[in-house]
Design a protein that fits this description.
Helix content: 40-55%
Structural class: alpha+beta
Strand content: 5-15%
Strand order of the largest sheet: 3-5-6
Shape: globular
Order of helices and strands: HEEEHHHHHEEEEHHH
Distance between the termini: 32 Å
Number of strands: 7
Number of helices: 9
Oligomer: single chain
Largest sheet: 3 strands, antiparallel
Length: about 240
């Protein structure tokens, strides 16, 4: 549910009907009809019913095959709008400093809730580290925008509840629900989507075991799709 003054734009309609039309292997559910109302700030989608073959990825334990499928699907989306020239064509420039600061400011109050509710299970160094993160990271994010390498249109919320995984096996996967708020990051480092998926939802042991090969697959898929100016070292640094 949306709060007072909040509303969704046409992003998800564009996701299915415009932004990735003709992209080979795009991990999108077939869309039969979509419409957005500018006056109501609401939309509808008529999508293929995959309930017989797929479940929310939250219901399955991540495997290497699943992670590589996710990496390949995200690479298909990201490569299509990769770099400053393509983003200019999309009318989606890299966010300015004010937008980044607002994005961080929306999340920053959460630190106090985390510390109040979970301080007893955090390592002793974590409270200070969390506060230091919010003190230093916005400037690092702003500085990173000075080099357009690695930037693209992102999904922004590629968590397990927005990914459909097959009931049997690991492929194909589908990524759904691209519904950013006006303060969300929508043009950002492509590897952000993989970081979001692996760091937020996977248990630490699974992530540590799988993240390097999954990132390698993502890098290889970008290169296969013509992205030749983004090194492995830069990708891994952006992920961290």
């Amino acid at each position: 549910d949306l709060g007072d003054g909040e509303w969704f734009g046409p992003s998800e309609v564009d996701y299915y009907t415009r932004d990735y039309r003709g992209v080979p292997d795009a991990p999108l559910v077939r869309c039969y009809h979509a419409a957005y109302s500018e006056s109501l700030h609401r939309y509808h989608l008529l999508l293929d019913d995959l309930s017989g073959s797929h479940v929310s990825a939250s219901e399955k334990q991540p495997t290497l095959a699943y992670g590589e499928a996710l990496a390949g699907g995200l690479a298909a989306l990201h490569a299509h709008w990769w770099g400053a020239a393509r983003l200019a064509e999309a009318g989606a420039p890299i966010h300015d400093a004010a937008h980044i600061r607002r994005f961080v400011a929306i999340a920053a109050p959460g630190v106090d809730y985390i510390l109040a509710g979970a301080a007893h299970i955090l390592e002793p160094h974590w409270p200070a580290l969390l506060r230091d993160l919010y003190a230093r990271h916005p400037a690092a994010m702003i500085a990173r925008t000075r080099d357009a390498g690695g930037f693209t249109l992102i999904h922004g919320d590629a968590g397990e509840y927005n990914i459909l995984a097959p009931r049997q096996g690991d492929v194909p996967i589908y990524i759904i629900d691209r519904q950013p708020f006006d303060w969300s990051l929508t043009t950002w480092l492509g590897v952000y989507d993989l970081a979001y998926a692996m760091v937020v939802d996977w248990d630490p042991e699974t992530r540590r075991a799988l993240e390097a090969p999954v990132l390698r697959r993502y890098h290889a898929e970008l290169r296969r799709r013509g992205i030749g100016d983004y090194s492995w070292e830069r990708l891994y640094d952006d992920y961290r």
